[in-house]
Request: fold
Amino acid sequence: MMNMKNISLVFVMIVLIITVSCRSTKKLQTAINKKDTALVIHNTPVTMDSLKIGRKDIDNLQKNYIDFKTFSAKIKVQYEDSKGKQPDVVAFIKMYKDSVIWVSINATFLSIEAFRILITKNNITILNKLEKQVEVHPLSYLESVSKIPLDFKTLQDLIIGNPIYVGDKIVAYKQTENHILLSTVGDFFKNLLTISANTNLIERSKLDDIDVNQNRTGDLTYSEYVNTDHGFFSTYREISVAEKTKVDIILNFKQNDFNKDLTFPFSIPKNYKAK
Reply:
């Protein structure tokens, strides 16, 4: 069974899809399915024509950007590591754009709410309901834990499923019958994007650190899109990371709603101890 003392940290990262980040590049490559290797671009030169097409594809990708005022979702989280499959967790997320992210984590094997988390532009507060403890950290705590640059907007995009870390410079481009393969370089990462040629929806984002001394990388896939009033939303996402051991994470969005009236109940009981 997963160590419940560490579950809040684990699922702050997992539920908010922060675990897309940061493992050894060489070891992560061994965790990627062989069938994916066909989608890797090997120093494909960027001509003026391909640069123009690639820029148009990025513009088309941005047209699918999901905008919202409020968002709520129920997510089934499956997690497996070297110790085997861990107990499933259900997470409820509520967001008010550019203001607050609220998360309730329910341990299904205990049938109770285990943690409640409140994230604002300044702070992250974690209520550990199992041990009656409260933790308060600056927002930069998420960056120090995940080891990737994270601000509030990036966090929102991670949850919604909007592309992140798409750089301004296109360094490689290739189009197949079904996919557009586009590699960009930004301030922090080289991002290899796999985009559906038919729908212009992102299917995969593979991040590699441009700082060879950092050597951070991550791999995230998006699928099972549904058409909402606010755009196409990916309801099924897979994350595979590997360091000393391989970790597989599945985020299955069971419910999602946009622009509904929401409340964000959050209070700290007097008997909770600060950690």
In short: Confidence is low (pLDDT under 50) at residues 1-11, 13-43. The two ends are 23 Å apart (CA to CA). Residues 143 and 150 are 5 Å apart (CA to CA). Residues 7-264 form a domain with the outer membrane lipoprotein receptor (LolB), chain A fold (CATH 2.50.20.10).
